[in-house]
């Protein structure tokens, strides 16, 4: 049996995001791995309707989709990490989550709550100090795979 490397899991998450993401700004994917096998995939989906169909809520509200509009009320999306956690059909204690982009603070709390003990993320942006603090306080190992990168794909 071939053991998959970290970049393979990140590539799989990225492919899944390219297919399933509902965001018009950027696709983000996640895969949760336990005992060497994928147990759940997630993408940044828009709830209740796809932004692809209706348009970006940030643009609707502010005229642009600038990241300075960070209130949860400014976006229809559910993040890839939460999507993967919600889609899992088994206990995630001790699992690893691979994410194609840095986890935000809310996703960090969901990851900790789910019992996931390792986070591996890619791209060039570093996680926030608060996200790092949440993971450190909870004993979650975080690995920034700086060598894995993918362009921000807009749908």
Describe the structure concisely:
The chain has 155 residues and is of the alpha/beta class. Helices cover 34% and strands 19% of the residues. It has 6 helices and 7 strands; from the N terminus they run αβββααβαβαβαβ.
Give the overall shape: globular
List low-pLDDT spans. Answer: none
Q: Largest sheet, described in full?
A: 5 strands, mixed
Judged by helices, strands and strand pairing, the structural class is alpha/beta
Task: Report strand order across the widest sheet.
Answer: 2-1-5-6-7
Q: How much of the polypeptide forms β-strand, as a percent range?
A: 15-25%
β-strand number = 7
Bin the helical content: 25-40%
CA-atom Rg in angstroms:
15 Å
Tally of individual helices: 6
What is the chain-wise order of helices and strands? Answer: HEEEHHEHEHEHE
Distance from N terminus to C terminus (CA atoms, Å) equals 36 Å
Average predicted local confidence, pLDDT:
88
Describe this structure in words.
The chain has helices at 6-20, 51-54, 57-62, 80-87, 105-114, 129-138, and strands spanning 29-34, 37-43, 45-46, 77-78, 96-99, 118-121, 141-144. The chain contains six helices and seven strands, in the order αβββααβαβαβαβ. Helix 5 (105-114) runs parallel beside helix 6 (129-138). The N and C termini lie far apart (36 Å). The strands form two sheets. A five-stranded mixed beta sheet has the order 2-1-5-6-7. Strands 3-4 form a two-stranded antiparallel ribbon. The chain is 34% helix and 19% strand. Strand 1 (29-34) and strand 2 form a beta hairpin. It is α/β, with parallel strands linked by helices and 155 residues long.
């Amino acid at each position: 049996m071939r053991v998959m490397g970290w970049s393979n899991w990140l590539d799989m998450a990225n492919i899944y995001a390219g297919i399933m993401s509902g965001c018009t700004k950027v696709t983000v994917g996640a895969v949760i791995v336990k005992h060497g096998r994928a147990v759940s995939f997630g993408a940044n989906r828009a709830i209740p309707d796809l932004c692809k169909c209706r348009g970006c809520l940030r643009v609707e509200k502010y005229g642009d989709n600038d990241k300075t509009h960070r209130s949860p009320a400014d976006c229809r999306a559910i993040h890839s990490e939460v999507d993967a956690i919600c889609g899992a059909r088994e206990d995630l204690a001790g699992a690893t989550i691979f994410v194609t982009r840095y986890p935000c603070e809310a996703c960090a709390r969901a990851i900790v709550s789910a019992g996931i003990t390792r986070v591996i993320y890619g791209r060039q942006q570093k996680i926030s100090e608060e996200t790092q603090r949440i993971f450190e306080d909870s004993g979650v190992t975080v690995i920034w795979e700086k060598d894995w990168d993918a362009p921000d794909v807009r749908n």
